[in-house]
Design a protein that fits this description.
Znf_C2H2_sf, double-stranded DNA binding, zinc, single chain, zinc ion binding, ZnF_C2H2-type_TF, alpha+beta, two-stranded antiparallel ribbon
Length: 350
């Protein structure tokens, strides 16, 4: 570099900041004083990168160190809670512009990172890396308690809390605690009512894309991927299959605290609890009769309409409720499940 070019290069720099070794610090780079610039690279032909840069900037709160002052400033927002970057679509705020850009892809549905094996696309390369381990079968992270293995470190950290009972993430609204941040974030949508994912067919909105929306779309496609090994009945999602399996196993994990009656589904228990509370929230628009269950109200409405939607496949007789039809079918099967307490004679009807 010539003297004239060196002067041009140094224009606007304050050389009063020269250190004892005749160098100047500008934007975290060491600049030699003009006239002393060697012809060879000032860093001895070694390019400074994020890996070999000295980490001179330390966080006063947790002690973590950084090679660049800007990175430390971004890190400090973790402790201060500052989130200066706001999403124009949903209003969610972020501590860094990079996080905002990644989030924006939820709304734009941009997924620039693609798996070379199956073609699945991702919003960020950090999501792609653990996905690739699915194809390799590698699970490098192991639980210290049960030796179960996981693809990502975050998965094993969240799993470990099952053993420790730790639930560090609390809901600011109701106080409910969770062992992972993602579970807490999904829960908060119950309070906010946020449902950012919409069905393209019926426009119904959902709070979760990976489970709720995908399960719902199978109603329109008719897809039923999950099959019962016992009776062959098929279901659109695995949760419904698990509930169905209880009809074969007899499992009833939900227990009434009042009378001890057990149920195979939590929804059935909730409906049952109305019996004890005495509440009858379902009212008939015609005669005003009130029912404790919506199913009972539907059965009652046929009194006014005269409709008998349930027909016997054997004799063709029709009934107002499915329960009445089931009781009728006992006659054709020859079953006599009801026994007289006095004489012991069996009957098909109670």
């Amino acid at each position: 570099m010539t003297d004239s070019s060196a002067e041009e290069h140094s224009a606007g720099l304050d050389f009063s900041l020269l250190s004892s070794d005749n160098t100047l610090l500008v934007s975290d780079q060491v600049i030699p004083k003009p006239g002393n610039i060697p012809e060879t690279n000032a860093l001895n032909n070694t390019e400074e990168t994020s890996h070999n840069r000295e980490k001179r900037f330390g966080c006063d709160v947790c002690g973590k160190r950084f090679g660049h002052r800007g990175h430390m400033k971004i890190h400090m927002r973790i402790h201060t809670g500052e989130k200066p970057f706001c999403c124009d679509v949903c209003g969610k705020r972020f501590s860094s512009r990079t996080h905002l850009k990644i989030h924006a892809r939820i709304h734009t549905e941009e997924k620039p990172f693609s798996c070379d094996v199956c073609g699945k696309r991702f919003r960020h390369k950090t999501y792609l890396k653990p996905h690739m381990l699915i194809h390799s079968g590698e699970k490098p992270h192991e639980c210290d308690f049960c030796q179960k293995r996981f693809i990502t470190k975050l998965e094993v950290v969240n799993h470990m809390r099952i053993h420790t009972g730790e639930k560090p993430f609390g809901c600011d609204v109701c106080g409910k605690e969770f062992n992972s941040k993602s579970d807490r974030n999904r829960h908060t949508k119950i309070h906010t009512g946020e449902k950012p994912f919409g069905c393209d067919v019926c426009q119904r909105q959902f709070s979760r894309k990976s489970t709720h929306l995908k399960t719902h779309t199978r109603i329109h496609t008719g897809e039923k991927r999950f099959c019962c090994d016992v009776c062959g009945k098929r279901f659109g999602d695995i949760a419904h299959l698990k509930i169905h399996m209880r009809t074969h196993t007899g499992e009833k994990p939900f227990n009434c605290d009042v009378c001890g009656k057990r149920f195979g589904r939590n929804e059935s228990l909730k409906r049952h609890m109305i019996v004890h509370s005495g509440g009858k929230p379902f009212g008939c628009d015609v005669c005003g009769k009130r029912c404790s269950r919506n199913e009972d109200l539907k059965n009652h409405m046929v009194v006014h309409t005269g409709e008998k939607p349930f027909g016997c496949d054997v004799c063709g007789k029709r009934f107002v409720s499915k329960r009445s039809l089931s009781g009728h079918m006992i006659i054709h099967r020859g079953e006599k499940p009801h026994v007289c307490d006095v004489c012991g004679q069996k009957h098909s009807c109670q």
